[in-house]
Amino acid sequence: MRPAAPEDAAQLARLHAISFDRPWGAMDIHQLLTTGAAGLIADEAGFILWRAAGGEAEILTLAVDPARRRTGLGHSLTLAALAAATDSGAKVMFLEVAADNPAAIALYEKAGFSRAGLRKAYYVRTKGFADALVLRRALNRDEALGL
Ligand SMILES: CC(C)(COP(=O)(O)OP(=O)(O)OC[C@H]1O[C@@H](n2cnc3c(N)ncnc32)[C@H](O)[C@@H]1OP(=O)(O)O)[C@@H](O)C(=O)NCCC(=O)NCCS
Q: Which candidate in 56, 58, 96, 143 is catalytic?
């Protein structure tokens, strides 16, 4: 696993595009990585972006190449982001996940997140909308580092 740099934006955009219906462009990802967001890349096959400020952190996106899913990359990336956010001083981490994405919800629950809210009709779908679950996890240094 290695930190994501702005120069990785094109590769990350490719991974994002094969993972989401509404892909983020390389320019958007480049901008995130030059304006305070942090990222990690695992095996060149998955990545996570998050931002931490004012004691709170937020996972912005997480994607794993379909050919490499169910091998633990997503879980490892999530735990590493939790540890890094904790090290940066954040006390809590939030994220939004589509209510119709059971794989991601299960991944985040496995990493200790629990439901904190609901945003109705948050994501645009080809037909209609999907709700977003807001998930929250308290950050505890010893726990997040797996000590
Ligand atoms: C969600 C995603 C990141 C999971 O990545 P992954 O590397 O396959 O996940 P892991 O192998 O680390 O799995 C970790 C846990 O997540 C859950 N999980 C992952 N994929 C799952 C699936 N298809 N069905 C049910 N649970 C799943 C399981 O609890 C799993 O633990 P287990 O292996 O002990 O059962 C990947 O499917 C993906 O990129 N999806 C498209 C983009 C997306 O939805 N991103 C998250 C929303 S921001």
A: 96
Token pair, residue 73, equals 């990359």
pTM above 0.85, yes or no: yes
**Calpha distance 60→25 (Å, rounded):** 14
Q: Which token pair is 26? A: 């390389």
CA dihedral 133, 15, 4, 147 (to 10 degrees): 50
- Which atom belonging to ligand 1 lies closest to the Cα atom of 64? 39
Is 122 an active-site residue? Answer: no
Instruction: Judge whether 108 counts as a catalytic residue.
Output: yes
CATH numbers and ranges of domains, the chain = 2-144 (3.40.630.30)
Condensed to tens digits (0 to 9), the pLDDT of residues 20-41 reads: 988 999 999 999 999 999 999 9
